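Table 4 source record.
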Amino acid sequence: MSFANCIAQSTFSKIIDLEQGFDQLPSDLNFRNNEIIVASVHNCAKVSGFDPCTSLTFFDFNGEIKDIKLIDDFRLTSGSSMTINNDILQLVGNDYLNNNIGISHVNYNFLDNQYELGRTYIDSTNRYLSEGLLHTSNNNYVYGKYDDLSPGVKIRGFVSKWDKDFNNLEAIWSYLEDGFVSVRDLQYTVDSSFVFIAHTTNAGAGGGLPLHLIKIDSLGNTLAKFSLESDKKSINLEEDSSGSLYFNINYSFETSIAKIDSDLTDIIWEVKLPVDNHTLNQRYLIEDLEVASNGDILFCGEIYCNHEPNGLLVGGVIGRITSTGELLWMKVLANENLQENSWGEKYRDSYLTHLQELPSGNIVAMGQSWQLFLDFEQVRSLWLVSMDENGCIEGFDCDEKVTVLISGTNDVLHDSQKISIFPNPVTDRLEVNNLEGLFTYEIQNIQGKILAHGASEKSIDVSQLISGIYFLQISQQDKIYQSKKFIKL
């Protein structure tokens, strides 16, 4: 069974400050046994304001939410930041509480549904921004970029080697000294070496530097390097069972998926994604690659193109390429809700960031869908889509060039700025103003648990709640309003 869900306001709005949310709401995707696991970054309410937090949301293979776990004071990285090893799920993030002089990490235990949050120091002279996590049998590898404060050097790429529990930093290696450098998508290869993408750019408007694929041994020594001309970008790297590597190449209005040999000497093939004859040519931003069980290459990301009759389409794209370089199919997934910018131009906005092949052969992908308040304020929703191996979604025409997934009426969260609650903080009763007629409500704590619900026309009894931070979600007829935070004394 496949599905297409916009999971958001009725679930996530109770723990997210939607107007101040991070750009990367969905941050990573994985699965275990019969569960799909989505890791997302949010702003969570504190008495002093809003601070970053991370949620783990567990879905069954039909797209139904089974559980949500909230991890406070943890900012997950936006790359490949989640690994699963038997009964332990590991996450890596940036230690924003300590000025990014190290990393933060989480061990989540599936057996007891509990997690441990740790912060590990690297050094106090540099600021580290991790891009992802790679787990091997004995070690964890965190990679990314850091501010090098030595003269003449701006940002350098790094790979750090840790023990499996993040107790000891065993080694840290840095690469490339010119310009701004970031290590992306580290892979452990079949010959027990490592390969990563090093994305380099110049500071300011001077243009780009070459894109590098770099192969290193277990001691961090460079074994091979493959470079592409300047201004080309890539953030995704995957290896198949033979040791061949696949990566995406983004260059202006041209995007391709390429296969290179394990020694990084020759590109075996390069598939350019199709560009239609639009006024604005189709262009892509590929966000994720996966090698399917049969050796095909799956990809997903974002597409920009003109789509009649509505003009600019910013949508999700997902496709499949054989191991010999044949594009089997490519689908464009659109959000039905039209938005309007300050020039009066209407457009659709949504995109995909991660995908996985399930044991059944179905493909599940996630991303963000942008929604509108009635006054054109924008909010984000988690977009979760499952399709069969041919890219077909149940209930939709598989031959349509653009698949419109989201209803324009369901799951749209209405702006609650006109609604006020008083007093806040509150002791006994919470008054709801500027809303006429009967409404229903739910009260939820910051862990996502519903503690009270009912119907009212004016006030809500909160006297039974213990002291803390809560969210009030109000619904009236077919409208769901953005949640309101309140403090119970």
